[in-house]
Amino acid sequence: MDGRRRLRASAMAVCVACAGLVGGAGSAWAQAPEEGEPGEVLSEEQLEQLLDTPAEQPSGAELSVASFGPEQLAPYFAEGVLARAHSEVRRGRFAKARALLADQEPTLPVRFLRAQSALLGRDYATAAEELAALAVDYVPLKDHCLLWAAQANEKLRKLELAASQYREVSSGSPLYAEARFSLSRVLQRKRDIPGALQALQELIDSRQARGPDALRMKALLAICDLARAQGLYNVEHRALLEVWATSPLSREAQRAKERLKGLPLPLKWKVRRGEALVELHRHGPATELLAGVMAQVDPPDELSCRAHLAYGRALRKERQHRRAIQMLTPVVEKCTSAEYRPQALYVLGYSQSVVDPRSAITTYATLARDYPEHGYADDALFFEAWLLQRTGQLGEALARYQETAERYPAGNFASEALFRAFWLHTRREAKAEALSALEAVERLPAASRTDEALWRARYWRARVREPVPLTSATALDDYEQLATERPATWYGMLARSRLAMLAPERLGRLSPVPGTSGDAEEPADEVWPLPPGPLRHDVRFAAGVELLRLGHPGAADELLAVNSRGLSEAPARLLYQTMVRTGRKRAARQVARESLRREVQGPLSAESRPVWEATWPLAFRNVIQRYSKASKVDPDLMQGLIREESRFRPTARSSTGALGLAQLMPATAKQVAQALKLGDVGESNLLQPAQNVRLGSAYLGQLLHRFGGNVAYAVAAYNAGPHAVDRWRQALPQAELDEWVEHIAFDETREYVKHVLGSYGAYKLLYTGQPVMLHPTKVEAASRR
C-alpha cells in the first residue's frame, strides 16, 4: 500500500472511531413502442437537461475576487512536528500527539488536532471544552465541532448541554442526520418523549423533497420504536404506514409490513403505496392494490381519482393503451381536481395517440385550453401539433408548433416546436421561413434552449445554406465552428463529416486533440489559479477545504453538499479539482456531470481532459473489451452504448423490465444466449456485469452484421428493434444519414441514436484521438482498435 493509500485508510479509521464514540447514530429493443406509438418523448435524463439552466460565465465581479490556488489546499500537517503529531493520531497514540502539539503555535488546525486527540483518547472533559471553543472560533468547521462536543458532553452525562449542541448543527450539513438521531436519543434519556419524536420528525421533514431515502426510513422506524415503547400506538401506526407506502421495496417496508399485521390499512395509504410501486415499475403489485381501492370508492372521490390515474399510468407503461384509456376516461370526465385531471388528460392523450390519434388531438387541445398555466400546457400544444402532422393536417400542425413557441417561449418544447416547424417549411420549399424558424431558436430564453437544440439549429442552418456557392464559406464556417466547439456531440460529428466531404482542407486545419499521439507535452491535470465566485461564501465548500487540509475523509461529503447548479465554469472547475484531491473518483465524476457541462461540451483540451475523463469513464473496460472484440464490435461503441443505457449501474432496471449494464430485455437475452449456446439466462444472470455485457455485445454484433456495419442503423435497432429500422429505411430510401435520423418515428429512439453515437465519438476522441466520421449513407470509425 503506497503512502497516499495508507494516509487515506488511516484517516478513514480515525473518522470511524469518531463516529462510533457514542454508539449508533434508454433500453434494449424489446422496450420499443408499438407500431405507430409516439414513444417516450423525453427520457428523465433528457427532461433534466431541458430543465437545467445553462451555467453562466464568470462575471467581472467574480474575476476581481482573489483567485484560489493550490496552496489553499495544502495539508496543514505536512512536515515537522505537526506531521509527527498527525501520524501519532493515526496510530492511536493520542496522548503523545497532544504532547507534541503542546508547544506549537495554537492555530485553529493545531487546536482542532489537539481536541480530536482528546476526544479519541476519551478525555471527554477536555474534548468538550476545546471543541465548544472551536465551534465559535473555527467557523468553517462549526458543525463538526458542535457534533463532537455534544458527543463528549453526552459521555459526561451533561445531557442538557449535549442536546443544545446537537440542536445547533445546521440542517444543510452532512452531519445533520447524525445530530438529529443523537438529539432524539439524548431527549429520550431525559424522558422528553415529545421532544425526541420532534427531533426525528424534523429530520424526516428536511428530507421530504428527496423522496423515500434510507435515512428517512430509518427515522420513521425510530419513531415507530419510540412510540411503541411509550404506548403511543396511533403515532406508531401512522409512521409504519408511511414506511410501508412510500418506500415499498425497501427492507424497512418489509419490517413495517410485519408490524402492520392485524392493523387497518387506510385507503389513502394503499393509494400512496400503489403510486410508489408504479414509479418503481412494479406494475403487477401496484394494479392489484389499486384495484382493491377502486372497488370501494368511485370518481369523483379524490382517492378514486388518484387510484384510477396511477392504474392508468401503469397500463400506459405496459403499453396496454386501450385499457389505459378505459381507466383514465372517468378521471377526465368526473374528477375536478386541478392536480389530478390535467395529469389524467396528459396520460390519456398519450395512449390515445397510439390507438386513436384523432381523439388524442381533442384531448391535448382540452388540456391546453382548460389549464393554460399548467406545466403540461405547452406539452399538450406540442403533441397536438405532432398528431396533426401525423394525420396529414400540415397547415394546422404548423400553426400549433408556432403557437407553442410563441405562447411558451420558456417552455420545454419551444425549441423542438420551432425545429418541427423548420421541417414543415422545408417540405413546402419555403427556404426563408425554414431559416427563420431555426434562427428563432437562437432567440429563445437560455433556460428553454438546450445546448443540443442550439447546435442542431446551427447545423441545419448550414445544411440549408449549402446550395449557396461554397466560395461564400457561410456553411463551411458554421461546420468548422461546430466541429471545433462540440466535437463529442452528434452534430459535431456530422459537421466534421460534412467538412470531410465538402472541404477536406478545412478539416485538416482543425486543432489536434491534445494528449494523444503527436502531442509533444503531457496535458495539464489541473488548472490554477481559479476565481472562486460564489464558492467564496459557500459554507459547505469552506468546510470541505478545511477537512481536506486536515486530512479528514469527511471532506468529500461536505463538497458533495455544495449546490453546484448554476456555477459558472471557473468555480465549477474549482469544485471539481478540489473533489479530485479527496481521492473519491466517483464523487468527482458526479460533480463533473452536474456542474461542468459547459466545459465537457466545449473543445477537448489539456485543461478539459480530466473533466472529460470523469464524464466518459472507462468503467468495466476489461469486460467490455473482451466481449466486444469477440462480437466484432468496436469497444468504444459498446462503452458509449452502456454509458447511455445504464450509466454503468449493473443493477439498472427500466420501466419495461430491461436489466443491467446493457439494458437487455429478458426475452432478447434468451434469444442471444441460445445463439451462443449458453443455456437459459434469468434475471440474476442479467444483473451480473460480465454476462450482461457478453449478451449485449453479441446482440449489437448481430445487428451490425444485419445492417452491413452501419452503426446508426444498428444502434437504432438496439433500441427500437430491427423491423422498425427496416420500415424507416423504406419510408426514406433516398435520405442521407442526418435527415434519416431526424425522421426516426420514435422520439425516444431518435434521441437515443444521437446520444449513443455522441458518446461513441467522445470515447474515440478522448482515448484514441481518432474521430468518428459519419458519411451520407453509412457510419464508420476512422479506425478500429
Automatic annotation (TrEMBL):
Q: Does the keyword Signal apply?
A: yes
List the signal peptide residues. Answer: 1-30
- Which keywords label this protein? Signal
List residues of the Transglycosylase SLT domain. Answer: 623-731
Q: Which InterPro entries match?
A: Lysozyme-like_dom_sf, TPR-like_helical_dom_sf, Transglycosylase_SLT_dom_1
Cross-referenced Gene3D superfamilies, in alphabetical order? Answer: 1.10.530.10, Tetratricopeptide repeat domain
UniProt record similarity statement: Belongs to the transglycosylase Slt family.
Record protein name field: Murein transglycosylase
From what organism does this protein derive? Myxococcus fulvus
